[in-house]
Design brief:
This protein is α+β, with helices and mostly antiparallel strands. It is built from eight helices and seven strands, in the order H-H-H-E-E-H-E-E-H-H-E-H-E-H-E.
């Protein structure tokens, strides 16, 4: 008779921990270090100036073009209706400053500084672009003046205050050029658009001198009337674009006697 009570012993072999060669903790530690590195990179970028952020963005957009200095300038035309950049301006010129990252020209670097300064009023500034001998931007006359007048609106003061603060910090000369549309002036004070545009340019210049103490020897004013349109005066939208104040920044050291007339940039649109 068999003995069914004989015990059966089952040995469970318990494998030890990973021991000296275990790797699970290494994966967790690597994840932690990666997360910390990402965190500090984000904090570093957040603390950068807007200009530095844009420089980094241009590098990652096209590193090769950035390194040889041929990348497009991240400047251009502000969409004044939406307060954002609509088109990049691929402009060259100025004096190459090889000590700066990317080999951007001196004027391009100056234009970046100007653009960053205009951030609080970017809805009011448009047509910001760079030429070989100057930087140009425009302010809509509607933002500064009442129709047919040359007295500043109260709402114009914050705009001009910001512009003046940016200009004061630049080692440059400034040309203020006012333009109108081709509609007849309906005011006894101004016989034609010539007088109106000159009066508006004079108002802006006086505001810079009397309100912000910009050296008068650094300022020039011009009135171009209706003769330098940038859009078709046949439509209300075109006339609104033509009513503007162009401001030109001419870096100190540029031969102003040889400077091409800024007004020559505006030409009647082709029919």
């Amino acid at each position: 008779m068999s003995d069914d009570s004989t015990p059966i012993i089952i040995k469970k072999i318990k494998k030890g921990g990973h021991g000296h060669h275990g790797g699970a903790w290494k994966v967790a530690y690597a994840d932690f270090v990666t997360a910390m590195m990402a965190f500090f990179m984000v904090m570093w970028i957040v603390g950068m100036s807007q200009q530095d952020k844009e420089t980094i963005q241009r590098y990652f957009n096209d590193p090769l073009k950035f390194m040889d200095g041929s990348a497009e300038l991240n400047m251009g035309f502000f969409d004044s209706a939406q307060g954002q950049q609509a088109v990049n301006a691929n402009k060259s010129g100025g004096v190459t400053d090889s000590s700066k990252a990317g080999g951007l020209t001196r004027l391009h670097l100056l234009a970046q500084e100007v653009e960053a300064g205009f951030t609080p009023i970017k809805n009011e500034i448009y047509n910001l672009k760079v030429y070989p001998d100057r930087i140009q931007f425009a302010i809509s006359a509607h933002s500064l003046f009442s129709p047919g007048g040359a007295l500043l609106k109260r709402s114009a003061e914050p705009i001009l205050n910001r512009v003046a603060e940016v200009l004061k910090g630049l080692n440059a000369y400034f040309m203020i050029e006012a333009h109108t549309d081709d509609l007849r002036v309906d005011s006894p004070d101004y016989p034609s658009n010539w007088e109106l545009s000159a009066a508006r340019a004079s108002t802006v210049v006086r505001y810079f001198i009397e309100g912000h103490y910009i050296d008068p020897t650094r300022l020039t004013l011009m009135g171009a009337g209706q003769y330098r349109p940038i859009a078709d005066n046949a439509t209300p939208e075109g006339r609104a674009k033509n009513r503007r104040i162009d401001i030109y920044i001419v870096p100190n050291g540029t031969d102003r006697t040889a400077l091409r007339s800024p007004a020559s940039e505006g030409r009647p649109p082709s029919k």
